[in-house]
Amino acid sequence: MVQIPKTPAAASRAPRSAPTSTDVARLAGVSRATVSYVLNDTGAVRISEPTRRRVHEAARELGYVPHAAARSLRAGHSRMVLMPAPAIPAGPLYSRFLSELQKALGHLDYTVVQYGSVGLRGDEAARAWAELRPVAVLVPGADLGPQGVAVLKRSGARAVVTLGPEPVEGAHALLMDHRTVGRCAGRHLYERGRRRIGVVVPEEAGLEAFAGPRLDGVRRAVRGTGTTVTELPLAYDERAAAALAARWRSLRLDAVFAYNDEYAMLLMRALQDEGIGIPEETAVIGADDLMLGRLLRPRLSTVRIRLPSGPQLAELVDRAVRDPAAAPVRRRVLDATPVHREST
Amino acid sequence: MVQIPKTPAAASRAPRSAPTSTDVARLAGVSRATVSYVLNDTGAVRISEPTRRRVHEAARELGYVPHAAARSLRAGHSRMVLMPAPAIPAGPLYSRFLSELQKALGHLDYTVVQYGSVGLRGDEAARAWAELRPVAVLVPGADLGPQGVAVLKRSGARAVVTLGPEPVEGAHALLMDHRTVGRCAGRHLYERGRRRIGVVVPEEAGLEAFAGPRLDGVRRAVRGTGTTVTELPLAYDERAAAALAARWRSLRLDAVFAYNDEYAMLLMRALQDEGIGIPEETAVIGADDLMLGRLLRPRLSTVRIRLPSGPQLAELVDRAVRDPAAAPVRRRVLDATPVHREST
């Protein structure tokens, strides 16, 4: 089952440590400069096809791998697009978005690298990212400041793109304003005749950046209509949901925006176990339009969130890389539409 | 709101391109070698605290960021642990595992980098990873071969750890045999008196590596008992589930292992809509023990899967990095136990 690679030449000629371009040059019978030209494909010098082939064969035989670091030192930049890895486990919507984006950037010959910056925040994190000399950096969230952008650019990043609620000086901004999601949910519930709306605010760390704006959006949607908005802190576990459901009738709510579909499923189950009629007594709406909402009974109303598509975003990054001097792009990309099903 | 960093010295003295260690040396009034000693913290040379401080201040003022690439070229390796990013959107179990592992490696001062290798497979991918010169590589799945391991090691990786069904020559192996999951589900259904078992095999690309072994595990669990096992291909959408449910009675099954909890939720809903009694007519069991299974009615039986904990795995990586000559570790890490609820 296990095959040892057959490289007799490598065994006899190569040193025991990592083979270098000098070894490749010796085996191919060319200069080191030629090896460098061929393997780094600089296009600066014309090299004949047979020589090219000889170098590639020697590299393969020796198992020589060019050093991305050394290459990017010479070229001044890499094809690496760096994204910080999410600090909390990614939800299904974001996971899908990420893998779509990765594929689209891959097609444009970029490599996406997700960087786990545990414990690092803001401009400190930017400094750590800069050490990898990415050609572009894509930062979800609101944590990067103008100094961080400057650090990244000085280190050679040609494009810094933020995905967050506010633009950051010097960076392209894809503006994702989660108030839009709350506004959409609030307006839907108001239009369904509800006047006492609860809004679930997850207690899980890392969700504040979304939960706050969503709550705020509901408030804005019903401002001046006499509708009350009640904040409902909730941990993502059955006991917390049961406790909230047990005191539900004392809250005198006729509707709830449950933050997203997963919290909606949790809360709706607890309300149903408590004998509360949905939607008669309480209307429930989630967000994200996950499959699970359609599988619930009553079927869950939700807010469909459209993020920028992978190919769209990849193209924006590519354009920004090609023209690093262009004025920063500001584009609103988060789109929310209500999906009315049976639970409201 | 937007603050431009105040760096008058930088503005007047620094070049417009990325500041170099030479610029730092000039501003701090020390030699370039001193800058390198201080910023790379080699510990090879003793340097006084005031000098150290001067260098750090000059670096900060100029916005100088050391080049990880250059640093790893000098040091011969980095603190980077590379993992290929999953090709399909990660499920909740894997997302949680990943972010736990990331945190644990971060505490040991490693940086986890997830590498999106779109279109690259096997040893070709290994070559791309090697270019980043990671100190350790952690590869889920079965795609890496012994040649890929050799390439990584030659490029300076001190530890290569695979998470997959089979060990790979030269690498440490955390053995994850998904037949264990199928065996656990099959045994549970058999013990509940079921003798005609369907097994859902997702049609989604990328899941074959798990679905095949799980099916195989069910077969092994009931071998020689006269129990039949029927393969049920299923796409993750409502129409496909409804179509399968519509012909359910003609299949004459009394139980189904639905691949995981999410497919179980999808199929259970379709069976219920078809009026099929669960568990009376058909017992349903999922896998992963997600929260959603507890929220269904009847409550979903499942297979709880224990992956190695983040800190455990991080420690193994760290030990392997410290002692690259140690014999490869082989450890079975996937643990499966049935969780009996109401659906079986």
From TrEMBL, chains A, B:
Transmembrane segments: none annotated. Residues 1-23 are annotated as: Disordered. Residues 19-75 form the HTH lacI-type domain. Keywords: DNA-binding, Transcription, Transcription regulation. Coiled coil: none annotated. Pfam families: LacI, Peripla_BP_3. Residues 7-22 have a biased composition (Low complexity). GO terms for molecular function: DNA-binding transcription factor activity; transcription cis-regulatory region binding. This is LacI family transcriptional regulator. It comes from Streptomyces cyaneogriseus subsp. noncyanogenus.
